[in-house]
Structures are given as C-alpha cells and as structure tokens.
Amino acid sequence: MIKKNFSLKNHNTLGVVVQANDCFFAHDLYSLQRVLHVYSKKKVQVIGSGSNILFTKNITGLLIKMHIKGIYVLKKQAGYVYLKVGAGVLWHDLVCFCLYRNYGGIENLILIPGTVGAAPIQNIGAYGVSLSDTMVALTAIHIESGRLKIFSKAACDFGYRQSFFKKNQSQYIITDVTFRLTLPIKHQLHTQYGIIQHTLNQMSLQNPTIQSVGNAIMHIRKTKLPDPQKIGNVGSFFQNPMVSQKKYRRLKKKNPNLIAYAIDAQHVKLSAAWLIEACGWKKKVVNKVGLYDKHALVLVNHGGATGKSIKAFAQTIQEDVKKKMTVDLKFEVNIW
Ligand code: FAD
Ligand code: NAP
C-alpha cells in the first residue's frame, strides 16, 4: 500500500523533518516489483533507516522504505557459514544474531546504525573491518526495468567507504545480501586499532573472543558517539581523505601533529577530524549546527536546523580546510 504525505520525522534524519508525497513499505520482493512497474515513470528513491542521508528538500517522487526481513543459513562448509539476509534487517541485529551463534567476521561493525541493504552502499567499515571482507554477493532490482540481478563482490566495485552503488545512485534497489562468516575454527580477531586493545585490557580479558571484541567496541562507541535517537547526526559527515605520500610529507612538515595512517606504498589516509579541529571548527555553532563535542567528524543538529543550513555549514568547513590545509574533504553522507 502507498502511504500519502508520509513524514520521516521519526527516522534518523539528522533531526531534519521531511515529507514524501508517496511512500511504499517494501515487505517482499514481488510487491516491490509490482510497485516499480506501476511507478516506472516517476523518480524512485530508496531508504533504509535514513541514518546516512541529509534531506535538503521534500521527496516528490516515490520513496521506498525497505522492510524485507529474514536471515537464512544457506550452508556450512569448510569452517564457514553462508548467510542470506533481507535488506530490511537492521545491521546491528544481524551482528547480534551472529555473535549469539558464534559466527565471526562482522563483530567490529557492531552498533553501526542502519539496514543490511544500505550497508554495501558505502561499504560500511569500522575498526579495520569493512563489509566487503565478508560479503560474497547481493541481489538487486534494476529500478528502470524491474529485473533482478545478482552482483558478485567484484561487481560491487568496493573501495574505502565506496561502491558501484554509491557511484550510481538510484539505479538499483538491494533486496538481500549474502555473507561468508567464520565458524570457531576459522575465527580471526581484528584488534589492530589501539583503542580496542586498550579497552580489552581494561576489561581484563587475556583471551578475547569475537563476543568480547564486540562488547569492547560497543562500549567504545557508546562513550564516543551521539545516539541519533537523542541528537540528530549521520555519523561521520566527511570521509577521511587519501593523499599521496609526497603530499603527506609536505603537510606533515607544516603540521607536525597531523594524524595519518599509511595505506600502501603510495597513499596515506589523513584524519579528517584532526584537519577540522586544526582549522578551529571544534566549538563553532552556526544556525543551530555544530560538531559533536567528543567527535569533530560528526555534525549535530542542536534543534531546528534545516537540511540546507547543515549543508551550508559543511560546505564552509570544506572550503576552510581546502584553504588552510590544501586538502579536499568529501562528503560521506548522501545529500538528497
Ligand atoms: P540510509 O541512510 O537510509 O541510506 C543511505 C544510502 O543508501 C542512500 O543513498 C539510500 O538511497 C541507499 N540505500 C538504502 N537502502 C538501500 C537499498 N536497499 N538498496 C539500494 N540503496 C539503498 N557508517 C560506517 O561505515 N561506519 C560506521 O562506523 C558508522 N557509524 C555511524 C554511527 C552513527 C551514530 C550514525 C548515525 C551513522 C554511522 N554510519 C557509519 C553511517 C550509517 O550507519 C551507514 O551508512 C548505514 O549503512 C546507513 O544505513 P541506513 O539504512 O540508515 O541507510
Ligand atoms: P578513532 O579510533 O578515533 O580513529 C580516528 C581515525 O583514525 C579513524 O577515522 C580511523 O580510520 C583512523 N585509524 C585509527 N586507528 C587506525 C589504524 N590502526 N589503522 C588505520 N586507521 C586508523 O576513530 P573513531 O572516529 O572513534 O571511529 C572508530 C571507527 O568507527 C573508525 O573505523 C570509524 O571509521 C568508524 N566510524 C565511522 C562512522 C561513519 O559514519 N562512517 C562513524 C563513527 C565511527 P577509519 O575511519 O578508516 O577506520
């Protein structure tokens, strides 16, 4: 059923209230295909839970809200378990399901808001692990033709917070995602981020498990990140920029405290949060928009800011970082 004049005010929309003329709640594949057939001439946009979208205007086409559920164990083979998961399952629920059954590989991605269907869009990642480390394939509907297509991992063209789908927005709707996760014999812990090791030590855990890594990360995230239900935010608003080694050396000479991580022989990842703080933005608030006090990459709506004013604030930061640091900051959030 299509809902008319649907308001997204109860979603994680950075505290911005928007309305969609027509909204369809997709609970299964076949009704979704039927609706796409009827609405083929209208602009179609899909949303999971809205935790990575900045709305700057109302939605005049058809908004599809993804609700396809289900977690299916396809097979267990050679130390791995294969799961097929509906796009409308909440990502954090999937991580908890896996930890409960001792399936490993996505524990570092615990507490990331949003749906499973949105996770491949920016190849969600945290604490040294990305979705692409465990995803094997996904199913998507081509919006224009209504045809189903299976994408292998290679076809998703994943990169750092990037994918084929992020580059080609509003062409496909992801309906399910298949993962290959580890059974105990194959578990591998990813504790290279210093804060994880530090937190595990604080918890006096000598022999950590995937469950204790999950718990440690949940604890870190709860202390460091704002809850979108309480204060409007979309997580990191900007991506950490990648620069050449040459550019990094030049910047480091001028800014000895610059925080950066070597990616490979040619590239270095800079901390966007450090760049923003170094440009003096930490405490600024303009038109009810500012940065979260514990995290400079997270823009927050102090109440009543519009999508346009949030975008304008972010653009001013971009321009300032470009001017002072000669670095391009790209939006990680999707601007609608
Ligand atoms: P939405 O915001 O609804 O949509 C995001 C984009 O995906 C839109 O372009 C939308 O059209 C598209 N999309 C959604 N569903 C589908 C579908 N089924 N098919 C095709 N396209 C679709 N991200 C990280 O990578 N790592 C983190 O650690 C992290 N932490 C966060 C912490 C907080 C507090 C917040 C608020 C956000 C964080 N994020 C993080 C960002 C966000 O959680 C992810 O981008 C998440 O995948 C968004 O899911 P969603 O369902 O809310 O997507
Ligand atoms: P943090 O631990 O304070 O680290 C700051 C930045 O340094 C991070 O962005 C991270 O890059 C990088 N970093 C830290 N240790 C690293 C290492 N050993 N190797 C390579 N890079 C390293 O980060 P945080 O901001 O609190 O976030 C923790 C994790 O959650 C990060 O992975 C972050 O991406 C993720 N997160 C993402 C969002 C989002 O919306 N995208 C929101 C909150 C948290 P990476 O970001 O590349 O990991």
- In the CATH classification, which architecture of the largest domain applies? 2-Layer Sandwich
Percent in helix? 25-40%
SS class: alpha+beta
In terms of DSSP E residues, the strand content is: 25-35%
The order of strands across the largest sheet is 6-7-12-10-11
Q: State the separation between the terminal residues, measured CA to CA.
A: 24 Å
Question: TL;DR?
Answer:
The protein has helices at 29-38, 91-100, 164-167, 194-202, 210-224, 245-254, 272-278, 307-325, and strands spanning 2-7, 19-26, 44-47, 53-54, 59-66, 71-77, 80-86, 125-126, 129-130, 135-142, 148-152, 172-182, 242-244, 260-262, 267-270, 285-286, 289-292, 295-301, 334-335. The chain is of the alpha+beta class.
Question: What does the secondary structure layout of this molecule look like, with pairings?
Answer:
Blueprint: E1 2-7, E2 19-26, H1 29-38, E3 44-47, E4 53-54, E5 59-66, E6 71-77, E7 80-86, H2 91-100, E8 125-126, E9 129-130, E10 135-142, E11 148-152, H3 164-167, E12 172-182, H4 194-202, H5 210-224, E13 242-244, H6 245-254, E14 260-262, E15 267-270, H7 272-278, E16 285-286, E17 289-292, E18 295-301, H8 307-325, E19 334-335
Parallel strand pairs: 2-5, 3-5, 4-19
Antiparallel strand pairs: 1-2, 6-7, 7-12, 8-9, 10-11, 10-12, 13-15, 14-15, 16-17, 17-18
Helix pairs in contact: 4-5
